Request: fold
Amino acid sequence: MKDLVVSVVLGLGLLASGCGVFDVYRDQQMPPPRSSETHGQQAAPQVPSEAPALPPVTVPGVEQLPPYWYWADQQQQEFARYLQQQWMYYYQNRQPPPQFPRPPVCTSTLLGGQVITTCR
Reply:
């Protein structure tokens, strides 16, 4: 049972880290958006000039983004923290093995060529 839980958690972790690979690949492969007027659609409404000015948005260039291993390492650390929390939860809520007040008294008897053991 423990092996099944560990394998499911690891499988989900691998799946989650694999999705990050495809996001990076997809973001690099997507063409720039086309103008909405070329498809016969209406252009997005413009902000009125009397509205307060918003601060400029800076979009980092590709050279400013950290390398992929940085993101993969972040995901791995997050997954390690998750696993640690799950193990702590397991150990805190685990039932201790049953404690017997005295050792059982067992007797063995040979009956018809078979050994029969009874414990009280």
About this structure: The mean pLDDT is 76. The two ends are 31 Å apart (CA to CA).
